[in-house]
Amino acid sequence: MATENPTDEAFGQLASQYSEEPASKSNFGRVPPIARFGGRPQLEEVAFQLQPGEVSGLINVGSSWIILKCLGHTQPVVQHVDDVKTELTDYILEQKLRLAMSTEFDRILAAAQIDNFLEGTTQVPATPRTGRAPQNLPFRSENR
Questions:
Q1: 21: phi > 0 → left, psi -120 to 50 → alpha, else beta; which?
Q2: Which residues have C-beta within 8 Å of that of residue 20, sequence separation ≥ 6?
Q3: Theoretical Cys-Cys bridge with 122: which of 7, 18, 45, 139, CB 3.0 to 4.6 Å?
Q4: Whole-angstrom distance, CA of residue 11 vs CA of residue 30
Q5: DSSP states of 56-112 as a string?
Q6: Domain spans in the chain, listed from the N-terminal domain onward
Q7: 59 strand-pairing partners
Q8: Which tens digits make up the pLDDT trace of 87-125?
Q9: pTM over 0.85
Protein backbone atom coordinates (compact mmCIF):
# COMPACT_ATOMS: atom_id res chain seq x y z
CA MET A 1 0.00 0.00 0.00
CA ALA A 2 2.92 2.37 0.73
CA THR A 3 4.38 1.85 -2.75
CA GLU A 4 1.01 2.19 -4.52
CA ASN A 5 0.56 5.75 -3.25
CA PRO A 6 4.04 7.08 -2.38
CA THR A 7 2.96 10.54 -1.21
CA ASP A 8 4.02 11.77 2.23
CA GLU A 9 0.40 12.16 3.32
CA ALA A 10 -0.54 8.60 2.33
CA PHE A 11 2.53 7.18 4.05
CA GLY A 12 1.67 9.14 7.22
CA GLN A 13 -1.91 7.86 7.14
CA LEU A 14 -0.69 4.27 6.82
CA ALA A 15 1.73 4.77 9.71
CA SER A 16 -0.97 6.24 11.95
CA GLN A 17 -3.33 3.40 11.04
CA TYR A 18 -1.02 0.37 11.13
CA SER A 19 2.06 1.21 13.21
CA GLU A 20 2.43 -0.66 16.49
CA GLU A 21 4.98 1.83 17.82
CA PRO A 22 3.05 4.58 19.70
CA ALA A 23 5.33 7.51 18.81
CA SER A 24 5.39 6.62 15.12
CA LYS A 25 1.64 6.10 15.13
CA SER A 26 0.88 9.46 16.72
CA ASN A 27 3.24 11.52 14.53
CA PHE A 28 2.25 9.95 11.20
CA GLY A 29 5.44 7.90 10.86
CA ARG A 30 7.90 10.78 11.10
CA VAL A 31 11.13 9.83 12.87
CA PRO A 32 14.34 11.80 13.45
CA PRO A 33 17.08 11.34 10.85
CA ILE A 34 18.80 7.97 11.03
CA ALA A 35 22.47 8.36 11.94
CA ARG A 36 25.23 6.32 10.33
CA PHE A 37 26.94 3.94 12.79
CA GLY A 38 24.15 4.44 15.33
CA GLY A 39 23.99 0.79 16.35
CA ARG A 40 21.24 -0.50 14.06
CA PRO A 41 23.16 -1.89 11.07
CA GLN A 42 20.19 -3.62 9.36
CA LEU A 43 18.16 -0.41 9.42
CA GLU A 44 21.08 1.83 8.45
CA GLU A 45 22.07 -0.35 5.49
CA VAL A 46 18.64 0.04 3.92
CA ALA A 47 18.16 3.67 4.97
CA PHE A 48 21.38 4.87 3.36
CA GLN A 49 20.60 3.10 0.07
CA LEU A 50 17.23 4.85 -0.33
CA GLN A 51 16.88 7.89 -2.58
CA PRO A 52 14.55 10.79 -1.67
CA GLY A 53 10.93 9.77 -2.17
CA GLU A 54 11.78 6.04 -2.31
CA VAL A 55 9.97 3.53 -0.04
CA SER A 56 11.82 0.51 1.36
CA GLY A 57 10.62 -3.03 1.58
CA LEU A 58 10.06 -4.70 4.94
CA ILE A 59 13.06 -4.42 7.26
CA ASN A 60 13.38 -6.83 10.20
CA VAL A 61 14.95 -5.13 13.23
CA GLY A 62 14.83 -7.38 16.29
CA SER A 63 11.20 -8.36 16.81
CA SER A 64 9.88 -5.44 14.74
CA TRP A 65 9.24 -4.90 11.06
CA ILE A 66 9.84 -1.43 9.64
CA ILE A 67 9.08 0.32 6.36
CA LEU A 68 11.03 3.50 5.59
CA LYS A 69 10.27 6.36 3.26
CA CYS A 70 13.25 8.58 2.48
CA LEU A 71 12.37 12.26 2.72
CA GLY A 72 15.92 13.35 1.95
CA HIS A 73 19.46 13.28 3.24
CA THR A 74 20.98 15.50 5.91
CA GLN A 75 24.51 16.82 6.00
CA PRO A 76 26.79 15.05 8.49
CA VAL A 77 27.58 17.13 11.57
CA VAL A 78 31.22 16.00 11.40
CA GLN A 79 32.87 15.87 7.99
CA HIS A 80 36.24 14.45 9.07
CA VAL A 81 37.32 12.54 12.16
CA ASP A 82 40.29 14.90 12.52
CA ASP A 83 37.80 17.68 13.37
CA VAL A 84 36.79 15.89 16.58
CA LYS A 85 39.90 13.84 17.27
CA THR A 86 40.92 15.80 20.39
CA GLU A 87 37.39 15.61 21.83
CA LEU A 88 37.26 11.86 21.17
CA THR A 89 40.69 11.34 22.70
CA ASP A 90 39.72 13.32 25.80
CA TYR A 91 36.43 11.42 26.13
CA ILE A 92 38.08 8.00 25.79
CA LEU A 93 40.83 8.97 28.25
CA GLU A 94 38.20 10.12 30.77
CA GLN A 95 36.26 6.85 30.43
CA LYS A 96 39.38 4.72 30.84
CA LEU A 97 40.50 6.80 33.82
CA ARG A 98 37.14 6.37 35.53
CA LEU A 99 37.28 2.61 34.96
CA ALA A 100 40.84 2.38 36.34
CA MET A 101 39.88 4.51 39.36
CA SER A 102 36.89 2.30 40.10
CA THR A 103 39.01 -0.85 39.89
CA GLU A 104 41.67 0.64 42.17
CA PHE A 105 39.04 1.86 44.66
CA ASP A 106 37.55 -1.65 44.83
CA ARG A 107 41.03 -3.11 45.40
CA ILE A 108 41.79 -0.63 48.20
CA LEU A 109 38.39 -1.23 49.82
CA ALA A 110 38.89 -5.00 49.78
CA ALA A 111 42.34 -4.64 51.38
CA ALA A 112 41.23 -2.21 54.10
CA GLN A 113 40.20 -2.87 57.66
CA ILE A 114 37.20 -0.69 58.37
CA ASP A 115 35.97 -0.19 61.93
CA ASN A 116 32.40 1.09 62.04
CA PHE A 117 31.94 2.42 65.54
CA LEU A 118 28.29 3.34 64.96
CA GLU A 119 27.30 -0.17 63.91
CA GLY A 120 29.88 -1.90 66.06
CA THR A 121 31.33 -3.90 63.16
CA THR A 122 34.72 -4.40 61.57
CA GLN A 123 35.46 -5.28 57.97
CA VAL A 124 38.43 -7.62 57.91
CA PRO A 125 40.48 -7.27 54.71
CA ALA A 126 40.96 -10.15 52.33
CA THR A 127 44.38 -11.60 52.84
CA PRO A 128 46.58 -13.05 50.11
CA ARG A 129 46.68 -16.36 52.01
CA THR A 130 42.94 -16.93 52.23
CA GLY A 131 41.75 -14.93 49.25
CA ARG A 132 38.41 -14.56 51.02
CA ALA A 133 36.26 -11.51 50.52
CA PRO A 134 36.06 -8.93 53.32
CA GLN A 135 33.51 -9.68 55.98
CA ASN A 136 31.83 -7.64 58.67
CA LEU A 137 32.48 -8.92 62.19
CA PRO A 138 31.13 -7.57 65.48
CA PHE A 139 33.73 -5.98 67.76
CA ARG A 140 33.95 -4.46 71.20
CA SER A 141 35.46 -1.09 71.81
CA GLU A 142 36.59 -0.19 75.27
CA ASN A 143 36.91 3.53 74.39
CA ARG A 144 33.22 4.35 73.95
A1: beta
A2: 64
A3: 139
A4: 10
A5: ---EEETTEEE--B----PPPS-S-GGGSHHHHHHHHHHHHHHHHHHHHHHHHHHH-
A6: 8-66, 81-138
A7: 66
A8: 999 999 999 999 999 999 999 988 899 899 998 988 888
A9: no
